[in-house]
UniProtKB/TrEMBL annotation:
This is Glycosyltransferase family 4 protein. Residues 26-202 form the Glycosyltransferase subfamily 4-like N-terminal domain. InterPro entries: Glyco_trans_4-like_N. Gene3D superfamilies: Glycogen Phosphorylase B (3.40.50.2000). CDD domains: GT4_WbuB-like. It comes from Bradyrhizobium symbiodeficiens.
Length: 439
């Protein structure tokens, strides 16, 4: 297939993702394989990781370039982590340019630093820059560190720089689109919503495995990264309330996922006296994940209410829905939009109410079935990746067919140049303006 805009060769995309290796970053992998199937040539730069250690690999037509990573253990070490990642991203971008070439860099945050790579190749080589907005980093910084200090203002400035360099931005939901337009000052015509729809070929309903329950009658399942803002402490406190205050000893909690808080959470489970009732499975394979989630009677999302989580769409919610699982979560804006009637909603950051909602569902099998069936229908009819793939391709058609706006002009008014959408002087003014702002 030959794409519009060049009759001789397909367009070439370089995707850069820093926080997860592919193909384990499911959104990025869905995007990469969708672009390949549509006729694009796709390369990916990402870190190495467990199960993804090969430095150079081709999977399903996607050319993967992996680099070493330094994991931050403190705030100071973030500078080292990001500096190392940026070095490798620049180095490998040049390698991809000479080996395969690219017409656009597709940057997936966090962090909001990849614009330095994209901006360089845009300014000097006329490449296009696409910002795939996965996380709202100012809110993420505040959720992790609980403060708005000088570093927070730097994070805000980096986000503004990223939007300033971007030809188009891809938002994961309406809240992120609003941020791109209002805080990022992007033309609304240049912001495209592409949700992280689950891949139903991967998420298969299989028979439950009783061994996951550890001999107990019920299982409550969770999958996700174990970080500070994921609120696993609320889930453990809910487990303590169920076991000791309510007196229920027939429920096993199974938590699948790794992350920087794993050891602390294991210690907290011991401290709360629920270690025997909680299985920390760690990072698991797809087969193990499906074994756990298909066994769970109720699946939970314990992400605490904060400005970041309230505006973010959690992939785990749609994965639960794809497997027809009833859900309990805190009442967050985008979480409610995603799940609708597939979930019960506890009072924000209230572990006792969270526990009560879990018990409500465990005590009502017909309601569990009703919520699960609603969620699966919603995924199949509206949220699965096949519904989102055309939106991604539409964004790229707009990018390469000259249908993006510049500096408030409508798409029909845009004058194209051989060096990208924005002339160098104008690009520099856009880059410098966020740094001059004191807001």
């Amino acid at each position: 297939m030959v794409l519009a805009g060049d009759p001789f060769r397909p367009k070439r995309i370089l995707i850069i993702v820093e926080n997860l290796p592919v193909p384990f970053d499911r959104r990025v992998w869905n995007e990469a394989t969708t672009l390949v199937k549509a006729g694009y040539e796709v390369s990916v730069i990402c870190p190495v990781g467990h199960g993804a250690s090969a430095r150079r690999e081709v999977i399903d037509g996607v050319h993967i370039y992996r680099h070493p990573i330094v994991e931050a253990r403190s705030v100071a070490f973030y500078f080292v982590e990001y500096a190392v990642a940026l070095f490798w991203e620049f180095f490998l971008a040049w390698r991809v340019l000479f080996e395969r070439g690219f017409d656009a860099i597709h940057a997936c945050n966090p962090p909001d630093l990849i614009f330095l790579v994209g901006g360089f190749f845009k300014l000097f080589l006329g490449k296009k820059f696409v910002f795939d907005h996965h996380d709202i980093n100012p809110e993420l910084f505040e959720a992790k560190f609980g403060k708005r200090n000088f570093l927070y203002r730097i994070v805000v400035a980096l986000e503004r720089c990223t939007f300033a360099v971007a030809d188009i931005s891809i938002a994961t939901n309406h809240s992120y689109r609003t941020i791109a337009v209002e805080r990022g000052k992007m033309d609304p015509n240049n912001v495209f919503i592409v949700r992280s729809g689950p891949n139903l070929e991967r998420l298969k309903i299989v028979p439950p495995d009783p061994s996951v329950r550890k001999g107990r009658a019920y299982c409550v399942g969770y999958v996700g990264v174990l970080g500070a803002q994921e609120g696993i402490n609320y889930l453990l406190e809910a487990a303590r309330h169920i076991v000791y205050d309510v007196g229920r000893h027939d429920i096993q909690f199974c938590i699948a996922g790794g992350g920087p808080e794993l050891e602390r959470l294991r210690a907290l489970a011991v401290e709360l006296g629920v270690a025997d009732y909680v299985t920390f499975a760690g990072r698991v394979s797809d087969d193990e994940l499906l074994r756990i989630l298909n066994t769970a009677d109720v699946c939970v999302n314990s992400d605490e209410w904060n400005p970041m989580n309230d505006k973010s769409t959690m992939n785990k919610i749609m994965e639960y829905m794809a497997l027809a699982k009833p859900i309990v979560q805190f009442d967050l804006t985008e979480g409610r939009f995603t799940a609708l009637d597939a979930s019960l909603y506890a009072k924000p950051n209230d572990s006792v109410d969270f526990a009560a909602k879990i018990l409500d569902l465990l005590g009502d099998e017909s309601r569990r079935k009703q919520l699960g069936e609603f969620g699966r229908r919603r995924v199949i009819d509206q949220l699965a990746w096949p519904h989102e793939a055309p939106k991604l391709l539409g964004a790229y058609r707009a990018l390469f067919e000259g249908k993006v706006a510049v500096h408030g002009q409508s798409r029909g008014q845009v004058t194209r140049t051989d060096r990208g959408d924005i002339l160098p002087g104008s690009l520099m003014r856009r880059l410098l303006s966020p740094l001059a702002s004191r807001k």
